[in-house]
Design a protein that fits this description.
This protein has 386 residues and is of the alpha+beta class. The protein has 11 helices and 10 strands. It binds flavin-adenine dinucleotide (FAD).
Length: 386
């Protein structure tokens, strides 16, 4: 069994690493401190093709497949969690979803600007009273002739304060439960649609998260993504891919924390020798390395299963693999970052040191994109199926 990347994948990964080292890493501390996403960086990411991976060039994307997205996710997250969260939500929750489920007219209308970084995308499921229980949403899209009038609101939406295009789920038939949900494409500027200021978060700063208010937003049938009543299918169709890619973000954070701790342990001298020579520090380093590499292997299996599915493969193993990969990667990343701070001692508690930023950032991994508890439920459901 060969886990090595192809020459093409290696070259792609190296190019993303060079870009991140030049454009993101030097600004990551400022992005965190100012809690602002720099628009010029967004454009550069668009030019580099990082905002349209998996989308064919005909729509302004950079081609490639889900595996490339997975590789890029790890590298971007190692540079800045905030940038990774915003670009991840844009690229996979909005852009890739739109590509997979959109009509030709919708693809032509939205994808070129989104892929180029001229526009920002968001995905809107969560509401104040429905988080884990997504199907319990109460935002309504009431049919009026062949139009729909949307009323309600969303919260915790990555990019909401700055987004131009929103993939948003609403109930078109509340009595039909999961079958009464429809996905819509909304745009900033539509009468009745407004967004809040960014929520003041503890981590992933620079990625603005906010609320969306819908007060009688009237849209035509051309704004339906997929078909009416088929929103849950639209939502589920991309979930495995999204989980595999979010697992790569957790891996990127863990790898970065491990690299920082390893380097620090060789430099920091106590009792006359580098702390790396103390066995308790070595044990931490060994555990951190093991967690990073174990997460990487499970992530690779999940990402490869997603590629197989995208190429028309069948089977449900991908559901539990993707949920398990994200579950394990996110929880491993928390432990790795915790140890990285410990190895840094007092300096790990100083905002000046990158590990303290990672400590705040990594906490999102077991909450966003479905919590650890829900991931466990999914794995168990798949194990017990049939
Ligand atoms: C920074 C950030 C960015 C986000 N970005 C987006 C986005 O772009 N789009 C979007 O739609 N949403 C987004 N979210 C929302 C995210 O998906 C939800 O926060 C998440 O699904 C959990 O929902 P909740 O916060 O309402 O928690 P709740 O569902 O209220 O859960 C609270 C606790 O109860 C547990 N729980 C709930 N149900 C069960 C159960 N059946 N069994 C056991 N335990 C259970 C949960 O695991 C959790 O520990 C984002 C959240 C954050 C923090």
């Amino acid at each position: 069994m060969d886990f090595s990347l192809t020459a093409e994948q290696e070259a792609f990964r190296a190019a993303v690493e060079t870009f991140c080292a030049r454009e993101i890493m030097p600004r990551a501390a400022d992005i965190d401190r100012q809690d602002e996403f720099p628009p010029d960086l967004w454009r550069k990411m668009g030019e580099m093709g990082l905002l349209g991976i998996g989308v064919p060039e005909a729509y302004g994307g950079s081609g490639g497949d889900i595996f490339d997205s997975y590789l890029a996710g790890e590298v971007i997250a190692a540079a800045s969690s905030g940038v990774a969260l915003s670009s991840g939500a844009h690229s996979y929750l909005c852009v890739y979803n739109l590509f997979r489920n959109g009509t030709e007219a919708q693809r032509q209308r939205y994808l070129p600007d989104l892929c180029a970084g001229r526009k920002v995308g968001a995905l809107c499921i969560t509401e104040p009273d429905s988080g884990s229980d997504a199907v319990g949403m109460t935002t309504r899209a009431t049919p009026e002739g062949d139009h729909f009038v949307l009323t309600g609101g969303k919260t915790w939406i990555t990019n909401a304060p700055i987004a131009d295009v929103f993939v948003l789920y609403a109930k078109t038939d509340p009595a039909a439960g999961a079958r009464g949900i429809t996905a819509f494409l909304l745009e900033r500027g539509m009468p009745g649609l407004s967004t809040s200021a960014p929520i003041d978060k503890m981590g992933c700063k620079g990625s603005p998260t906010g609320r969306i208010f819908l007060d009688g937003v009237r849209v035509g049938p051309e704004q339906v993504l997929g078909t009416v009543g088929n929103g849950v299918h639209v939502l589920m169709s991309g979930l495995d891919v999204e989980r595999a890619i979010f697992a790569s973000l957790a891996l990127g954070q863990a790898r970065r924390a491990f690299d920082l701790a390893l380097a620090y342990s060789k430099e920091r001298v106590q009792f006359g020798k580098p702390i790396a020579q103390f066995q308790m520090i070595q044990a931490k380093l060994a555990d951190m390395y093991t967690r990073v590499e174990a997460a990487r292997l499970l992530n690779l299996r999940a990402a490869m299963a997603c590629v197989g599915l995208e190429r028309g493969g069948k089977g449900t193993e991908v559901h539990k693999l993707a949920a398990a990969a994200l579950l394990f990667a996110a929880e491993s990343a928390e432990k790795v970052v915790y140890d990285a701070v410990q190895i840094h001692g007092g300096n790990g508690y100083a905002t000046e040191f990158e590990v303290s930023r990672l400590y705040r950032d990594v906490r999102l991994g077991t909450i966003g994109a479905g919590t650890s508890e829900i991931r466990r439920l999914i794995v168990a459901r798949e194990l017990l199926r049939g």
